[in-house]
DNA sequence: TTGATGATAAACAGCATTGTTGATTGATGG
DNA sequence: CCATCAATCAACAATGCTGTTTATCATCAA
């Protein structure tokens, strides 16, 4: 970052009445209410009230309730993205995947600290018509693809299926265990339980392969199909 | 009031008195609307309209909108339970776990054929204060516990975490891929993809253990902790 | 100062919903 | 055959939200 550290707030020409700040306040309030009542329960009245802003003002920033909701969702997504991947801009190809383990852990921690918010965001993503336009989902899936292509990964991972499973598991486990209404200590332990089970699953799976020879065969056959389809598509 | 002969023929033939059937019709309608609009969007008016029943009638069967929603949820849960575990009553201890593979597959198929309904039910389960009171969740978790104790399973499975992951993965994958608005053929293929990835994960995990010796050590240490806690609790 | 922009306040029509009440109808037992 | 009672229905009042509009105030830029 450039010499921005020395800049005193007086240097920057203050905005007239700081619409930016107002907008941010509205979005923050919307976030909080979204986490409390879910997307359906979000009313412009309540948002304005919580943001200490007139209802008309909210309508000036976001023409319709639906647009406010959409803006709030991507706002949350950005928050999540920063928490997991750091402050780097979206398109920076470097450091996309420092370590898969770290990404998984930071995601689990974020989810555990914001269970309701994570839940709501996830369901908006699922309901969205174009998931690919979501900042976090994009970067997350890219990073998982990179891992799957690396030599550290088992061969044959179905990245789409796997990304969905990991994402929703991580985000909904805190919801299931009621992470809100838990002590910080409990939450730490619950994150650890989840991470360990995920790690165990990643390293060992759940079934002893030697006990399921026929399934193993089936699996290899399916992988053969996939490879054949891929080469046929060329 | 004068004799009814002059009354305009807009009178709807009154439903035959059969409370059971009426109740079922209301619940079925609620199911359909639940799948379409989600729990928040469920209005008694619409339910009554779809069930071809007066709104007041619905209020007689379910005192409040909230109760209707709750009843509908367990109705769905029962449906799911039957689809996955068969018609046997809940408490029958026999045949609880014919084969874990079959359970997983039937669940995936149900989810793929009823994506919206599965999503809503799952959401209600997550929001519920006592998941243990849900018919399907109960039986599902029991069956998974049984498997984890069997000699076919890898040791050290955290059943709670794992049950949540498998359940939500199976139910939300169809939502993610927009199983509605897909052809039957597509849906079949998508079920297969999911099942294969789940199977692959169960048999092999995602990471090559030989590449992560330190993680393997960490995992064994964690398992040691758990065992120590368990023996300390005695 | 002036003009433009952001923010506030209040009021309005339209709509959908909730929950309640009293009337009506059909089944059923005596 | 009728009296009773529960199931059903139509209508009502109350509420809250949406989106729009109008008038007014505050703050900064030029």
From TrEMBL, chains A, B:
SUPFAM superfamilies: Homeodomain-like. Keywords: DNA-binding, Transcription, Transcription regulation. GO terms for molecular function: DNA-binding transcription factor activity; transcription cis-regulatory region binding. Residues 1-10 have a biased composition (Low complexity). Residues 20-80 form the HTH tetR-type domain. Residues 1-20 are annotated as: Disordered. Residues 43-62 bind DNA. PROSITE patterns: HTH_TETR_2. This is TetR family transcriptional regulator. It comes from Sinimarinibacterium flocculans.
